[in-house]
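Archive transcription. Copying these from loose printouts into the bound notebook so they stop getting lost. Printout 1 of 2:
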Amino acid sequence: MTTLPEKSCGIERLITHPKLVAAAIAGNKTEQRRHGVYGWPGETFVLEDIKFVITDLQRQSLGDMTDTHAKAEGYDDLASYQNIILKMHAGMIWNDEGLAWVHSFVRQL
């Protein structure tokens, strides 16, 4: 990506749910999908005093998600991921053509 999109929220809001924070710290979560851009590649964020760095930012349609992507989000499979997303966002329907920003990250050593 040569031109970075404008941020829609601060990076400190990228991962906030306690279960997802714990999954990232444990190394079971390496991606976070959001409707907007929360951070750019190279940018760091902190979860419970542990620093992470964003390694990639890509646009992806929900229909292109696989079980592998859901596991990178910290879930067992795509069905589990879909279920929790729909519970978290009342009234939302899963639209395969819907787009999300995929923030990939690693724990910084």
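Printout 2 of 2:
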Amino acid sequence: MGRKWNNIKEKKASKDANTSRIYAKFGREIYVAAKQGEPDPESNQALKVVLERAKTYNVPRAIIDRAVEKAKGGSEENYDELRYEGFGPNGSMVIVDTLTNNVNRTASDVRAAFGKNGGNMGVSGSVAYMFDHTAVIGVEGKSADEALELLMEADIDVRDILEEEGTVIVYAEPDQFHLVQEAFKADGVTDFTVAELTMLPQNELPLSEEDQAQFEKMVDAIEDLEDVQQVYHNVDLV
């Protein structure tokens, strides 16, 4: 799974370079999560996940508070959560998660971003079956053996634990996301290098230099869309 962590890290680094865009996306996601349940993360697991993710991206507290207060204030602004699936060069697979207040606009924009950059939209289910919904938690200052022992003592089963570049990466079932974090916090961990609920490909696809350039152009065009929250893919970026 090592390359999968690298892809997550590369995506995070790319987004960190576009702070205004990522902050806006998190503001929308926090608002939706807070509005769908209680605005308290201790009683709203969806909101808690989003806030944990936001922390790893250094989203300012002011943006978080503004989104939560907007939800508390009974804003009538509503968003639909929609997933699109499609293909890029050489059969590469892409999943696009969106939050939108205009379904027709979003569908048209996503389709155009695929089509104008060498890809095409697929039907629902055409791609997602090749990905696994996974919790990914990263910590520093521990070895893989130490992390495994800690999680075993907490009676938490995980899919895999890897140690790369001084970071221990834990891959777990989505419903173990908070349990893994709480186990580390109980052991003194205060910061996580990654805290994601993501879609990881079961197999990664290498592309030629030309196809990879085309693929990255397509993904950039999709991620630039206002309504797009997350983009997942199965390409082994090098």
